[in-house]
Amino acid sequence: MSRFLPFSAWKAIFLATAVVAYLFVLLTPRDPEYRLHIIETCAALVSLYFLFTVDNRKLTVRDAIVCGIVLIACVAGHFGLAVSGFALYLILTGQPASADRAAGIVMSAIAVRAVWAPIVLETFAPVLVRADASLVDHLLSLWNPAVHQDGAVVMSSTDFGIEVTMLCSSVHNISYAALCWVTITMMARKTWVARDLWVGAATMAAQVSINVVRLAIIASSSPLYDYWHDGTGKYWVKAAGTLAALAIATAGAHWAGRQPLFTPARPLTAG
Q1: Would residue 99 count as lying in a domain?
Q2: Residue 121 in contact with residue 166, Cβ under 8 Å?
Q3: At what angle do helices 170-188 and 195-218 cross, to 10 degrees?
């Protein structure tokens, strides 16, 4: 038999379940901002590849039952719970640093982005948008003493201002950055190290910074609003956010996996 990844029953059933679950996530109508785009689709393909490379796990009755429940939940319209539950099952039952656990981790990040992030935004929207508005107010006040904040509204002058909405919130971008970070880290190595937390924090902090700067710019004047919110500028901002997330996550995965620069010297032994 070839040494290249025998196509076991476990692999066939789990791949089929994952593909169906992702199709439901892809095809279910939702706010355009939370549909799976290129990065999310690539992450889904990465998790499917991880499942395909699993070659040391056999199908059990429990596995078959879980896959059946996931498929039924998808058909019943509960695709969010289905994908999240399937990801959790892979994480809990996979061995450390295994491909199936890595697939579950990436799948959970996709579920957070597509399903749970909108719920968090909707639930905590008043607090989150006020936090963003406060950051914008502090940034603009560095060069515009006339700026003032009223809840989610930031006024840069007496006749112009913006209202920070849910889809403008930094949390929206954080869920995107987290997906990039998780996917790239799992591609680099299928396990976590302590330094990964710093990389994740840096990836998300970059998104918050980019978003706050964007909000400050569009709150400055009507022409800037037209260009950076409704015009070509919004695509530059999205590109900057994507490149920042990919660059920090990629460089960070390499940095986090490196050995310390200095290691204690081994004591000399006689003989």
Answers
A1: yes
A2: yes
A3: 150
